[in-house]
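Risk register update: the risk of archive-format incompatibility is retired. Evidence:
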Amino acid sequence: MPRASGCPLDPAPELAELQERAPLVRVRLWDGSTPWLVTRHAEQCALLSDRRVSADWMQPGYPFHTRFLRDHHSEGQFLTAMEGPEHLRLRRMIARPFTPRMVEKLRPTIEQIVDDRIDALLAGPEPADFVSEFALPIPSRVICHVLGVPYQHHDFFHRAIRAVTESDVPAEVASKSERELYHYLAKLIGHKLAHPDDGLLSQLATERLATGQLNRHELVMLVLFLLISGHETTASMIALGTLALLLHPDQIAVLRDADETGVAGAVDELLRYLTTVQPGRRRVAVEDIEIAGQLIRAGEGLILPEEIGNRDESVFPDPETLDLRRDAGRHLAFGFGVHKCTGQPLARLELQVVFTALFRRIPTLALAVDPDDLPFMDDGLGYGLKGMPVSW
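Archived output:
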């Protein structure tokens, strides 16, 4: 469903129209299947936390976003596509580094990374591309630091991940990129076993793989999931959040005046207002479910777009307005239920540090082009900016 011309930060108008019509409606996908689209916050939360709903893309009826994912899903599952004991087992293995207490220890490192990128931005040519020079390098550096993955290979990661996640990439190109990523990580795991360090990848290799608690394929898929989710969505959020603030300068003033709690609340509002996961959360019913006057039968797919759940006026009054003073803590940007994003404390901290430092150190930051001329990524799993020229 395309977004309206001139309104790239808002959900597709058709989504809003469907939300007004009913909490659940049938839609048609690229393969002719007709899953349920869940339009309202309450029903999204209820279904995302219902044991009769599965994220397992091996289940018949799962509503795949692209042909490539449908044809290659059996080659390995991401954590977000697992259920039950297996999901819990793997989630527990990576949980500790992403607890709020452990993430807070990364604050000085993240602050230094952000300050370094601001220095580089200011020292470089003007106008500069905010996406490539600022928004993308920060989460890439952070997740590489956490995992213990060499940052000098970030261009390779970025190119390969884009090829795998964008829907218009030819299947053979996506397959080649997926193989390259897989073999790179498998080789890196062998290196970490021989030369351990303090990164999460090394910890998983020496404590889980070497002891038989993980096999090599599971570890590769787990690290690949962390790489993708740890830099792409946060980079998009940095760029989109900055654009939203530049288009609402009154809210920059609110952000500058906010204390630490206020900044955290402001980030929650930006997460509610914007969306970086494009095709909605995908699920399939494994038993019959009655909800909102509809019967969802076992084997029927579900699509739950958080961008429209986050614009539900019954939960967020005047939802089309960006209000950094709003209590937006019930937003669905990180999901809901057992699959709620493990790395959300890290993403929150990165965004808090970025938006605080950026507008403090570059108070004159401005778009260098007309907003209507900005190029957006709208053909893959993620939504964001391809580039954003800025001046100061």
